[in-house]
Each structure stands twice: as structure tokens, then as C-alpha cells.
Amino acid sequence: MSQLAILPVRNARITAGYKNAAYFKGMGFHHFGIDMTDKDRIHFNLAAPFDLEIIAFGNDRLMGNTIIARSTGLVDIHYGPKKGSQKLVLRMAHLGVIGNKVKVGAKFKRGDYLGQYGSTGKYGGARHLHVELDADIRWPLYSPTLSGHSNIWKAGSDTTINPMDCFKVDGHQSLWYSRNSGDWLDVSADATTLNHDRMAVIAKPYL
Q1: What is the mean pLDDT of residues 79-104?
Q2: C-alpha to C-alpha distance for 80 and 55, rounded to whole angstroms
Q3: Domains of the chain (ranges plus CATH)?
């Protein structure tokens, strides 16, 4: 049986969407994940969205403090071209704090503390989490986000999925989107998902 993922931020506020055309126009490169904060930008803790094993972690010179992990079991994907159940790679960037239990080979259960989101790395900017999910579990360090290798993240081809095709809202979480992000996100694609009863959840607007 596949596991239902949760949001890595408890009261998540989506600020930039997956493969967003306006983001590409503004930043000059494609966005192969989503960006999020918590609703009020005061609770920075990050949770494991599903059961996982740490593959790599540390300070990447481009992406900042990083955690890269692989799911230990099948994860439910409720929408998109990869709809179904499969193992996934998780990549988190710009962390302010990496939890002291994060070590290569360490295993975490869904909901366990991983660290805090921050603003580290070349493109850290305002404090936020950049998160990617990848369907290719053979090469977890390789991301289409980079055009060349860094010290942890490596340049790779695109096998990513929209994280919101997988992340779901559990009973202790809520979902929001930033009105200030404008066309950097598509609410129907980047801020809409399911809860653990498989009922639709559409994010509410917030600053």
C-alpha cells in the first residue's frame, strides 16, 4: 500500500509554482519545484512529507543548505502524468537549519522534524523552502534546476513532478497561496490538492 504524503510546512503558503512561465520570464531559468513558507512566516519547521532515507545533505554553494532523500516505500501521486504509486526523491533547498539527526542513511517517518526553511544559497532571497520531487530514484542528486554541477546538487534531465500532485493536507495542516506572487503561480495546479480523505483542497489567498 502506498503512503499519503503531507505538506512539509504545517500551514503552507505557496509563493511560486512548478514550471511557471512568468517565473521563467522574471528569473531567467525554469522552476522545477514549488516555493513555500508558512502562512505567517513565523513557524519555520520542516517535516518529512513521507517516510524517507537521507541520501545527501549539507551546504550547497548554489542551493544553500540542502536535504536530499529517497522515499523508503511507495508514495501516492494523485494527479498528473505520473499518477499512481511509486518511490520518489525529495530535494529541499535554502534551509536555515538542518536538523541534527539528519545524517546520510538516517531514516525518518512522515511528520518527523528535518530542519527549518531559510534563505541560504545564491537564490535564497527571502526566507522560503524550495522543494522538488523526482520520479527518477536512481540519480537523486541530479536536478534540471542546475545548468552545471555544484558541490551537492548536479545538473540533470527533467524527471520531476509537481509536488502538489503528491503533497496532501492532513488534519493538522492548512493550505494558502500568496496573493503577492501574482502570475508566478497557478492556483489550480500549484495550490490545489487533496486531504487524506481524498477530498479536494483549494488554497485560500493570503498576503
Answers
A1: 98
A2: 26
A3: 11-206 (2.70.70.10)
Q: pLDDT per residue over 56-75, tens digit each? A: 999 999 999 999 999 999 99
- Count of Cβ atoms closer than 10 Å to residue 28 Cβ: 7
Q: Alpha carbon of 152 to those of 41, 61, 117, 123, 140: distances in Å?
A: 27, 8, 18, 15, 10
Strand 64-71 to 89-98 pairing = antiparallel
Strand pairing class (84-86; 160-161): unpaired
29-56: pLDDT as tens digits:
899 999 999 999 999 999 999 999 999 9
Distance CA(10)–CA(140), nearest Å, equals 25
Q: Report the C-alpha gap between 200 and 122 in whole angstroms.
A: 36
4 and 45 Cβ atoms separated by less than 8 Å: no
DSSP reduced 3-state for 142: strand
Nearest one of 146, 179, 141 to 62, comparing CA atoms: 146
CA–CA separation, 136 vs 176, rounded Å?
29
Q: Taking a C-beta distance cutoff of 8 angstroms, is the pair 189, 162 a contact?
A: yes
Q: Is 96 exposed, middle or buried (0-12, 13-18, 19+ CB in 10 A)?
A: middle
User: For the whole model, what pTM was predicted?
Assistant: 0.97
